[in-house]
Design a protein that fits this description.
single chain, 650 residues, alpha+beta, five-stranded antiparallel beta sheet, four-stranded antiparallel beta sheet, 8 helices, elongated
């Protein structure tokens, strides 16, 4: 009995000790959790929330793409203007809508006057005003005007392209059309730009109408007037962005613009469509800076500045169209992924939102604007279902929330397009097979018939590769083929290259050792050499231009131009060796000529190998030396080739 009581007490003591241990463990876990929540920067924001689901009633905007979105901080109101119903040939809008964050509903207003119906224009909000400029309307009408929507008055105002100079009266200014319109951007659509919240300068950059533009403009919303701040028209300069449209952009400072991606193909230019290069323009330095690649190539994405917190600036990019007829292989971006740009470090990062299951879905052609508590986004086309949208979303976040988000994926995911394949094939053809085939023909001709067989294999295979690359180029350029420098030079080079094997099939017969070349054979050789050299030199130059057009990385730049220098060095060395061999052959020839001349003067009979009455003399025709033998039995005009062809056999 005593032992049972002792055992029972021991069990109770052990149970109490274990319970106290569990309580202490739980207490420590709770303490660690509280410390982690306090110390670690876990973002409670950075979440998408849908403000309006969008419906088909008349109480909300219809589904649309490439509209304009503005925001008034004082009344916490969103304004929506324009756009199209995601089918440009169908319907383009000129309506104005207001969304009140307090009432959670849309309201359509009908101010008069108002901008013409348009889409893909540049827009931005600042100081209780919403600005739009440029855009495309019905029947491919492009605009160059700029409008301002005043939130308190709920009215649109057409702003003048230039303010009246002080030296002109009102009547003079009104009658002087040339002076009023002397400086403003050309009509265009799908440009990028905007205005920094609280700023006064409205920017537009690049864009497209009948051609793609390289220029950047700013409009002073206080003094009223356009000023060109960057103007380039050279398409092969790597110090500024290539002409493009359908790129996204936003102002990250009062005079600092960031752009991403877009389409470089067509409109008098060539290049990837979509592309992944990103640039920052500083009006202070009047210069562009290229940014490290990160996000996947895309166009028609949306971009906006996050609300600035503690002086930290961050811009975000969402969505975009990745797949076009030019793309062969890509890794799609995630639907919960956002691109985050840091203007201070000039770097992009790919982040995932706090709740990856609540998001607007992958879409393109949507629009964004900076709000009080985050970034608003409206409309676009859902990429998965291919359905147009009219819903309104808010990404609740500020600039300080972005750095603590988890990464969504690595930068520079695999991507391959017809442009990449075209460049690879053309570099192989015009950079390797065809130049080395010419090298063999010029510097290995003494190895007959080996040189001829190698030359034929290299040239035929090289042209087949070039033709495949030419087909890829046609598939890659979606419109306006052969209307820019790289395309025109490429077409000329291909014509010269393709005629070479055809020319080789119709070449005249090669003369025998005791025959002279026919005039037809001589003309054929001259044309074959000249056209072949022009084609190869033009091909190498055009591949070098294509390295820029295709937006190749600096590694590919270095490899290609290093290889071209090596190729040129090999040709220089080959030419030196050939000239040296030529000089040696000339010295040997002079010795033989002296012997033959001495023998001819003394009447040496070459048939009997004895001195006799049969005189002979030598003469030179081009690079060949010939001997004329006079004999009663033989034709005095018979030429005996001494097989001393300097250029070929030495």
């Amino acid at each position: 009995m005593f032992q049972c009581t002792k055992i029972s007490k021991l069990k109770n003591k052990m149970f109490q000790s274990g319970f106290q241990y569990i309580k202490k463990t739980h207490l420590l876990i709770c303490i660690f959790a509280i410390v982690a929540l306090v110390i670690l920067p876990v973002p409670l924001n950075a979440e998408w929330t849908r403000l309006h689901s969008g419906d088909t009633s008349l109480s909300s905007p219809s589904t649309r793409c490439e509209a304009g979105l503005g925001y008034d901080l004082t009344t916490d109101t969103v304004v929506l203007f324009g756009g199209h119903n995601c089918d440009k040939s169908s319907e383009i809008y000129a309506d104005t809508w207001l969304y009140s964050m307090s009432q959670k509903k849309w309201q359509k207003i009908q101010p008069n006057p108002h901008p013409a119906a348009r889409f893909a224009f540049v827009y931005g909000s600042s100081n209780r005003c919403f600005y739009i400029a440029t855009g495309e309307g019905f029947s491919r009408t492009f605009y160059d005007d700029i409008w301002r929507f005043h939130f308190p008055a709920k009215k649109w105002i057409l702003l003048p392209p230039q303010a009246k100079p002080s030296y002109m009266s009102e009547s003079q200014w009104k009658n002087n059309v040339h002076e009023r319109l002397r400086q403003k951007p050309a009509a265009r659509y799908a440009a990028a730009g905007g205005i920094f919240p609280g700023g006064r300068d409205f920017y537009i950059s690049l864009g497209f109408s009948t051609k793609r533009y390289f220029d950047t403009w700013k409009y002073d919303t206080t003094e009223h007037g356009w000023t060109i701040v960057d103007d380039h028209d050279h398409p092969y300069n790597p110090s500024y962005p290539h002409a493009r449209c359908l790129h996204s952009g936003t102002m990250v400072g009062p005079n600092e613009l960031v752009i991403f991606g877009g389409c470089l193909s067509g409109g008098g230019t060539g290049g990837p469509c979509p592309t992944s290069d990103s640039w920052v323009f500083s009006n202070k330095d009047k210069s562009w800076s290229i940014l490290p690649d990160c996000a996947s190539p895309r166009m028609k994405s949306a971009m906006a500045l996050l609300p600035i917190q503690s002086g930290v600036r961050r811009a975000i990019m969402y969505g975009g169209l990745e797949k076009t007829s030019q793309v062969l292989m890509n890794v799609p971006y995630k639907d919960y992924e956002i691109g985050v740009f840091n203007p201070d470090s000039k770097k992009w990062n790919l982040k995932r939102i706090h709740d990856p299951f609540i998001h607007p879905g992958k879409r393109h052609s949507s629009v964004m604007v900076t709000g009080r508590h985050g970034v608003f986004m409206f409309g676009g086309v859902n990429i998965t279902s291919k359905s147009p949208k009219n819903d309104l979303w808010l990404l609740i976040a500020n600039s300080t929330d972005m750095d603590s988000l988890l990464p969504a994926s690595e930068c520079r995911l695999p991507f391959f397009s017809f442009i990449s394949l075209h460049g690879l094939l053309m570099a192989s053809a015009w950079g390797f097979f065809l130049p080395w085939g010419m090298f063999i023909a010029r510097y290995m001709e003494h190895r007959d018939p080996l040189w001829f067989n190698l030359h034929r294999v290299f040239q035929v295979f090289g042209m087949l590769v070039a033709i495949a690359g030419f087909v890829c180029a046609i598939l890659a350029v979606q419109a306006d083929h052969f209307q820019f420098g790289h395309g025109i030079v490429g077409l000329i080079v291909m014509v010269l290259g393709i005629q070479q094997p055809l020319n080789g099939c119709c070449r005249p017969g090669k003369p025998k050792s005791d025959e002279l070349k026919s005039h037809r054979r001589s003309c054929w050789e001259v044309w074959h050499r000249i056209s072949g050299r022009l084609a190869i030199i033009g091909g190498i130059i055009n591949v070098s231009l294509g390295v820029f057009v295709g937006l190749a990385s600096m590694l590919i730049w270095g490899l290609w131009y290093g290889y071209v220098c090596l190729l040129l060095l090999c040709f220089v060395i080959g030419e030196i060796i050939k000239k040296s061999r030529h000089r040696v052959a000339k010295r040997a020839l002079r010795r033989k000529v002296r012997v033959f001349s001495h023998a001819a003067r003394h009447g040496f009979n070459y048939k009997s190998r004895k001195f006799g009455p049969s005189p002979a003399f030598l003469f030179r025709n081009h690079s060949n030396w010939y001997m004329v033998k006079h004999s009663k039995k033989e034709n005095p005009n018979v030429f005996v080739n001494l097989a001393l062809d300097v250029d070929k056999k030495g």
